[in-house]
Design a protein that fits this description.
The protein is an alpha/beta fold and 465 residues long. The protein contains eleven helices and 25 strands.
Length: 465
């Protein structure tokens, strides 16, 4: 049997790491285990020193700052002495005959993924099996696990996620992880997109499987301020940072089919020309384009400098080369012009009296047809609606009716379903319903010529500096 180097970054996951190591050593093959101890404070270094095993290799970051799985995975794969490597997480336990099932399908130009068996901490999906062997390592029945077999007749599907196995040379050929996503978060989705574009065949074997305690590296790590099912502040920050970096690089959210096979859209050179672009709009729009042009005169210019100073440490893109005066002629292949007043943002908070942060799907609308709200949200017969002012031709000419189909902390989806308008009048501009939806209040107007109104407007314009 060919040897595999199991590359395992670990930070403050000692008890889980012991299980991972035990499960790999129990496999039939004489595989290598390469542990990359990333500034752990939980006794990991001391335990590793006690393990007398020629197949165990250790690389340590003494800290105090972590390197993260981006740097640690790449370092470990570079150090691997075997032709085949497997990216394995410290919170995973190898199932019986995992190595045989992986090697059965592995060839050069292929990446083979093992099926994950998980507790119900994350939503179910067709690519994994939900079965609870415990949330903590002390709850895990190792002997029972060695007798386990997933309840499926499937053998191979297409998709990729951790743990994944491939030839070391194939990994090095795509340049490893992108430092843009250091220390972690979205680095795997970026890597998988590049595997896909390189033409590698991405396979999932259902005969090889692991138990995955899930998200113990940073997200649910107690040393980082998290807990089982509770996101750590550290993970929240890096996740938000690298979601923006993913937008900058790929111009989309992370995309994949139900079995986790990457979906990669074409990438275009896009320039945004934005009127009335304040700093909030700049923060929202900048990651989605290659260049952004607007009027940065006066206090806006100082604000742009502050934005760059604060955001630049969180990305490898040179933001000073992305943000331009609208006096510069755009040279992008695609140029999109719009008014920042016609943007609807979505914000999220755990508490109405605490800080609100941008929702992952914001902005949800960039259009004069419905971006400006035209009334309160309406909940009616298990459906949710919002009303947007239609200002395509005139201010407040009618109301667009939009049904909110999905609203979660991570997702948002809405659908335009119709228009409310009044014959011979302009409007409604706003509409609201009472608590029982039996009374409605709305407004409308008509355009009338008034000489005195015109004079007042001219006087107001003349008084402006």
């Amino acid at each position: 049997m060919e040897k595999i180097t199991f590359v395992i970054p670990s930070r403050n996951n000692l008890e889980l790491l012991k299980l991972a190591y035990r499960s790999i050593i129990a496999l039939e093959g004489e595989h290598h285990v390469l542990v990359l101890n990333d500034a752990s404070e939980d006794g990991t270094a001391e335990w590793l020193e006690t393990v007398k095993d020629d197949r165990l290799h250790v690389h340590s970051n003494p800290g105090p700052e972590r390197v993260g799985i981006v740097g640690m995975f790449d370092k470990g794969i570079e150090m691997a002495e075997t032709d085949i490597i497997m990216a394995f997480h410290a919170d995973m336990v190898a199932g019986k005959d995992l190595d045989k099932a992986i090697l059965k399908h592995l060839e050069r130009g292929k990446v083979v993924t093992a099926t994950r068996i998980e507790p119900s901490l994350h939503p179910p999906g067709p690519e994994k099996v939900i079965e609870d062997f415990g949330l903590e390592p002390e709850e895990f029945d190792f002997d029972k696990w060695l007798e386990y077999k997933p309840p499926t007749n499937r053998v191979i599907t297409q998709g990729i996620f951790a743990p994944w196995c491939m030839y070391k040379d194939d990994f090095l050929a795509i340049g490893g992880h992108d430092e843009l996503f250091a220390p972690q978060s979205r680095e795997d989705s970026d890597l998988f997109n590049r595997f896909y574009l390189k033409g590698y065949e991405l396979l999932q074997t259902w005969e090889g499987f692991v138990y995955h305690f899930t998200s113990r590296g940073s997200r649910f790590n107690k040393y980082s301020g998290g807990d089982i099912g509770k996101d750590s502040p550290e993970w929240q920050d890096t996740n938000a940072k690298n979601m923006r970096n993913f937008f900058r690089k790929w111009k989309t959210n992370v995309q994949h089919d139900p079995y986790m096979l990457p979906i990669v859209d074409p990438i275009y050179d896009v320039g945004f020309v934005v009127n009335n672009c304040d700093l909030n709009a700049l923060s929202i729009l900048e990651p989605w384009c290659d260049d952004i042009y607007s009027d940065w005169v006066g206090h806006k210019g100082f604000g742009v400098s502050k934005y760059i100073d604060e955001e630049q440490p969180r990305t490898t893109y040179d933001l000073s080369k992305k943000i331009h005066s609208d006096h510069i002629e755009p040279k992008n292949d695609i140029i999109v012009k719009f008014d920042a007043k016609n943007i609807l943002h979505l914000w999220i908070s755990d508490d109405p009296f605490k800080e609100f942060k941008p929702h992952p799907k914001t902005p949800i609308v960039i259009s004069p047809k419905s971006a400006r709200m035209g009334g309160n949200i309406l909940s009616l017969k298990n459906r949710i609606f919002r009303f947007g002012q239609n200002n395509e031709r005139e201010y407040g000419q009618s109301l667009s009716v939009i049904e909110i189909k999905k609203l979660t902390p991570k997702d948002f989806l809405e659908k335009y379903i119709g228009t409310i308008k009044i014959d011979k009048y302009k409007g409604p501009h706003t509409i609201n319903f009472n608590s029982k939806s039996k009374k409605i209040i709305f407004d409308f107007y008509v355009n009338k010529f008034s000489l005195f109104a015109g004079i007042r407007r001219i006087k107001t314009l003349l008084k402006r500096p």
